[in-house]
Design a protein that fits this description.
Heat Shock Protein 90, 10-stranded mixed sheet
Length: 670
């Protein structure tokens, strides 16, 4: 039988129906959940060309009661949902347009629905609407289902006369699944204990993929209990952030803007509050007490609730900024070249860490300071902040920031504490660094001099130097440690140039192993073009029992010859320094010292063009460290005897050497 709508076909067409198939599908899914469904599934069939020739949306809800048809399908822009939930701020389908949104998908739609009538008997019937005349719908008579055919209630929506512009990709692409996740994630999460799901061709929708963080907790205000669900989204899912107030049936009663909508951060959030309190809540245009048994935003319980929610969100935002936002800001600043250039020595690293800590601390307190700035403005602000931190004017940082944005007393105190903490952290880290380096020096002395019989080059000395190559230069990057020299050269070219430039090397060359290979690039002063000096250090370590002589020097010269014969390494802007280290040097080496004494470079045994070779004893290495760190060691006045006693306590055995090596390697010295 055919029935007339309360509007004609043209009125339906001009009522603002969606032209987005994703939104249309969502309307039908909401209809299923509105009918009490716990599972809504999208199914489709494909034709040979990849198009969609059949589409169904199936739910296990309560179905459409035949006696309600005049109030559901018979009305337009006056849905019974709006009558039942007349105080809702955003009831899906509240104007009855959802059932007509099929227009973007198909030329008609058929509902095959099963419901339980007043006599608890399950009945089934069909409803049809076609685009040719939207002013009427056709409904068959409900028929009871035979006892042996009894099945659950629910509705199957079948789309008729499919549009040719839809393909399988429309239902499998990321855009579609992301839209459904954004639309339904909160609802599925709040109903997870009931097992609510959405399926697409048999595959469950992964709505959690867009949730970065979630938390559920309860709070009590007055005589009412409120269940609160916080969600931080991985992506922005709406234009604004809201508190959603839900009644006992998880129906939205009102949504209220949070206080974090004007902050330029990636703290995408929603907060859902469920309580029987909202069963009698209404939102009025103006504050004022009500006298009809309902409450509104003027109620004391509501005001106290909002205050508690604001406090909660403020803490969540601050935690998020500390863990995610501030780190992302630094990554962005390093990528865009906003941070100033620091030297690669310990002092430069400490200054950089201090600046990063201050930027992160300021961002955590007041993110607005770093928003909506041009690249030059960001560089200027960060550079100026760096100058203040590196002077006696650290306290003026707060005054300057207050000239940009107003700070609350709490924010001012927090920022002040952050600046104090970064200073203290910088001091503590420097002290610990020097102390750990002293332990490394004393440990190496023990291994070289007292554990001579048990210490090996490969298992002890080399491992320690590999992790503590600052002994030969703070400014270098480690290219290799104990790998074939040809592979080291390949890694070297990747480090400096981003591509391998190695020619043909012999098998004998490939067997050679430098213990430590370090490198750095440095801008050449006075050049009109962008030229760089590449400095490289190759270190050959010898076990304590080996005395450095002509044979050991020859090994270093072999490394030199490999490089001399490789065309890719002939630039005079590359400097090569070779160092061989052992417990002692013989008379031959001492004679080479004299030969090159006119170069005024201690321990030099070979010099030609951009190649230099040095022979050093371990004592030379240790004294170089003492000289380089003399100022800090004198100021900090470490009790060297305590450190000596620590490393001297190890048993003089191979096991003792292994244990001492392990403990040294566990120290943070860079």
């Amino acid at each position: 039988m055919k029935y007339k709508l309360s509007a004609n076909s043209k009125s339906v067409l001009n009522s603002g129906l969606t032209d987005d198939y994703k939104k249309a599908i969502a309307e039908y899914i909401w209809n299923g959940f509105d009918a009490g469904a716990s599972c809504v599934e999208i199914r489709y069939s494909r034709n040979e060309l990849g198009g969609i020739d059949g589409l169904w949306i199936i739910d296990n809800g309560s179905g459409i009661d035949y006696s309600d048809l005049p109030n559901t399908f018979g009305t337009f822009l006056d849905s019974n949902k709006a009558q039942t939930y007349q105080r809702l701020s955003d009831t899906r389908g509240r104007k009855g347009k959802g059932r007509f949104s099929y227009n973007v998908i198909s030329g008609g739609v058929l509902w095959r629905t099963r419901y339980r009538d007043d006599d608890r008997c399950i009945k089934q019937y069909e409803i049809k609407i076609y685009s040719s005349d939207r002013s009427e719908y056709e409904a068959s008579d409900p028929a009871p289902i035979a006892c042996d055919e009894i099945q659950a209630t629910g509705t199957v929506v079948q789309f008729l006369e499919m549009r040719s512009n839809l393909s399988e990709n429309n239902f499998t692409n990321d855009s579609f699944t992301h839209y459904l996740a954004s639309e339904f994630a909160w609802f599925l999460l709040l109903n997870q204990s009931k097992g609510y799901t959405i399926k697409i061709d048999g595959v469950e929708l992964d709505y959690r993929s867009i949730i970065g963080d979630e938390e559920e907790w309860k709070l009590t205000v007055g005589e009412y209990s409120f269940k609160c669900n916080f969600i931080r989204w991985n992506t922005k899912i709406s234009d604004k952030y809201y508190y959603y107030m839900l009644n006992s049936n998880l129906r939205e009663v009102v949504k209220v803007l949070t206080s974090f909508n004007n902050k330029s951060t990636t703290f995408h959030h929603s907060l859902y509050v469920t309580s029987s309190y909202f069963n009698k809540f209404t939102w009025d245009k103006e504050d004022g007490e009500r006298f009809d048994g309902l409450v509104n935003q003027s109620d004391d319980i509501y005001k106290k609730l909002i205050k508690r929610l604001k406090e909660y969100l403020a803490k969540k935002e601050k935690d998020f900024i500390k863990k995610v936002g501030a780190n992302e800001l630094i990554v962005q600043y390093e990528r865009d070249g906003i941070l100033p250039t620091f030297s690669d020595d310990r002092y430069g690293k400490s200054r950089k860490k201090d600046l990063i800590g201050a930027i992160q601390g300021i961002y955590t307190v007041q993110p607005k300071i770093f928003q909506k700035l041009t690249t030059e403005q960001r560089k200027t602000m960060v550079g100026f902040l760096n100058l203040l931190l590196d002077s006696n004017e650290r306290s003026n940082v707060i005054n300057i920031i207050e000239g940009v944005v107003r700070l609350s007393p709490e924010e001012r105190e927090e920022l002040n504490a952050t600046l104090r903490a970064t200073t203290l952290s910088r001091i503590n880290s420097s002290i610990n660094l020097i102390r750990n380096r002293l332990i490394v020096i004393e440990g190496l002395k023990e291994l070289v001099y007292d554990f001579e019989k048990f210490t090996t080059e490969r298992d002890h000395i080399q491992k320690i130097i590999e992790e503590n190559y600052w002994l030969f230069g703070e400014q270098y990057n480690l290219v290799s440690a104990d790998i074939p020299f040809t592979s080291a050269l390949m890694k070297y070219t990747y480090l400096l140039d981003g591509a391998s430039k190695m020619g043909e090397f012999t098998l004998e060359d490939a067997r050679k192993r430098p213990d430590i290979f370090m490198s750095r690039s440095q801008k050449l002063p006075g050049y009109a073009y962008s030229s760089f000096l590449e400095e490289n250090i190759i270190v050959e370590l010898k076990r304590p029992s080996v005395v450095i002589g002509k044979e050991q020097l020859r090994q270093i010269e072999d490394y030199r010859d490999i490089i001399l014969n490789e065309p890719h390494f002939q630039s005079h802007q590359r400097k090569w320094t070779f160092i061989v280290v052992g417990k002692e040097v013989d008379n031959y080496i001492k004679g080479e010292y004299q030969t090159f004494s006119d170069k005024n470079r201690a321990m030099l045994v070979h010099y030609k063009d951009n190649f230099e070779i040095y022979a050093m004893t371990w004592d030379d290495v240790f004294l170089t460290f003492e000289h380089r760190e003399k100022f800090m060691l004198e100021k900090l006045q470490f009790d060297r005897q305590v450190i000596y006693d620590e490393v001297n306590a190890y048993k003089k055995s191979r096991e003792g050497a292994d244990a001492l090596c392990r403990d040294i390697l566990s120290l943070n010295t860079r």
